[in-house]
């Protein structure tokens, strides 16, 4: 059970599950949405569920500050800054790339009191360790949270989330054929895949990679390892193998964090048909991919599909020009 592990409350749970009526009629599938954009931690998102376990672990270890890393518009960093503030912990963020103007999540990081350190993207992990070393030498007790919060402790948040979804689905009288969500560092995928297997979920769990396809099997082996380790923490002997992890690649478009037609069209469609904001980097790309899979018949007509909104609309303001391209309104 997921209540075996220490947990702090950061999210407003359960997040809503509801049907997208207008889009269902338009697309010919029975389309539902799980609103993890409404976890409510400083605009919400999927990292909040992971942080409930990660911050509890940090506190149990006597930490007085957390160190984590991400991209300039990282939703993980923004939610970590908010979670740390709520628990009286200082927060150091290592962001990959050149310093950028304080828009979107970067503005929120600053308002939430995080200290931002810029470093070239490939150096993020080593810079985190270096910072933690400096903090320790200065008498502080740092706790390093991996990129995306994607270790076994964080993944447990999405095992619990899968239980939550399946309970709500049963109540609503819908058995999903497929659950679709955007993936990057893999912790959400690890948790959902494990949660699905433990619960005997009969549908398919499909992760949409927002990154480039890896050139070897190492990444999915790592995700499977995180899932298996999370099972162990829950006192469960379930094993997850890489073959059980379904990932769709091919939606990288112009690159990580680059808004193109796929994201722009998906964000506009969801906004204009359902009044829901998707984000530019993850949820817009993931939903655009689902639209493509429906158009191509990879998702069959009439299927009951759940799109998991992972919450990154707070980055929209950093992409105003790309999002409005070609818009005459
Ligand atoms: C981090 C993030 C993801 C991907 O989750 P991982 O656990 O890192 O794979 C998806 N959507 C949003 C909005 C995110 O911030």
In the CATH classification, which architecture of the largest domain applies?
Answer: 3-Layer(aba) Sandwich
Distance linking N and C termini:
51 Å
SSE order in H/E notation?
EHEHEHEHEHEHEHEHEHHEH
Calculate Rg over CA atoms. Answer: 19 Å
Provide the number of structural domains.
2
Structural class: alpha/beta
CATH class of the largest domain: Alpha Beta
Find the count of extended strands (DSSP E, 2+ residues): 10
Count of alpha and pi helical runs: 11
Description:
The chain is of the alpha/beta class and 329 residues long. It has two domains: 2-45 and 150-323, Rossmann fold (3-Layer(aba) Sandwich); 47-149, Rossmann fold, CATH 3.40.50.1100. The protein has eleven helices and ten strands. It has helices at 21-27, 47-60, 75-86, 104-111, 124-137, 152-172, 187-199, 218-233, 261-274, 283-295, 320-324, and strands at 17-19, 30-35, 65-70, 90-96, 115-119, 142-144, 178-183, 204-209, 246-248, 304-309. The strands form two sheets. It has a six-stranded mixed beta sheet with strand order 1-2-10-7-8-9, sandwiched between helices. The longest helix has 21 residues, at 152-172. The radius of gyration is 19 Å and the shape is globular. 49% of the residues are buried. The structure holds pyridoxal-5'-phosphate (PLP).
Q: Helices and strands in order, then pairings?
A:
Blueprint: E1 17-19, H1 21-27, E2 30-35, H2 47-60, E3 65-70, H3 75-86, E4 90-96, H4 104-111, E5 115-119, H5 124-137, E6 142-144, H6 152-172, E7 178-183, H7 187-199, E8 204-209, H8 218-233, E9 246-248, H9 261-274, H10 283-295, E10 304-309, H11 320-324
Parallel strand pairs: 2-10, 3-4, 3-6, 4-5, 7-8, 7-10, 8-9
Antiparallel strand pairs: 1-2
The protein binds pyridoxal-5'-phosphate.
């Amino acid at each position: 059970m997921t209540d075996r592990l220490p947990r702090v409350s950061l999210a407003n749970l359960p997040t809503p599950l509801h049907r997208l009526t207008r889009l269902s009629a338009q697309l010919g599938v029975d389309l539902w949405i799980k609103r993890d954009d409404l976890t409510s931690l400083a605009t919400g998102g999927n990292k909040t569920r992971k942080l409930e376990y990660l911050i509890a672990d940090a506190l149990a270890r006597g930490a007085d500050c957390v160190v984590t890393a991400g991209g300039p518009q990282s939703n993980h960093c923004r939610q970590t800054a908010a979670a740390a503030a709520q628990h009286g912990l200082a927060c150091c963020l290592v962001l990959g790339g050149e310093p950028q103007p304080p828009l979107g999540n970067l503005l929120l990081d600053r308002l939430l009191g995080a200290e931002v350190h810029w470093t070239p993207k490939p150096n993020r992990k080593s810079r985190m360790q270096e910072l933690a070393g400096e903090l320790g030498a200065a008498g502080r007790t740092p706790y390093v949270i991996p990129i995306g919060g994607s270790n076994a402790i964080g993944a447990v948040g999405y095992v619990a989330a899968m239980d939550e979804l399946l309970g709500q689905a049963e109540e609503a009288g819908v058995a999903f054929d497929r659950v679709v969500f955007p993936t990057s560092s893999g912790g959400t995928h690890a948790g959902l895949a494990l949660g699905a297997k433990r619960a005997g979920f009969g549908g398919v769990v499909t992760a949409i990679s927002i990154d480039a396809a890896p050139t070897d099997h190492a990444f999915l082996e790592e995700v499977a390892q995180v899932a298996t380790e999370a099972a162990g923490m829950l006192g469960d002997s379930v094993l997850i193998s890489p073959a059980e992890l379904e990932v769709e690649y091919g939606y990288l478009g112009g690159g990580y964090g680059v808004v193109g037609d796929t994201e722009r069209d998906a964000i506009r469609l969801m906004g204009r048909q359902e009044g829901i904001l998707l984000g530019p980097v993850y949820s817009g790309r993931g939903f655009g991919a689902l639209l493509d899979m429906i158009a191509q018949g990879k998702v069959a007509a009439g299927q009951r599909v759940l799109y998991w909104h992972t919450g990154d609309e707070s980055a929209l303001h950093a992409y105003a020009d790309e999002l409005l391209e070609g818009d005459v309104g």
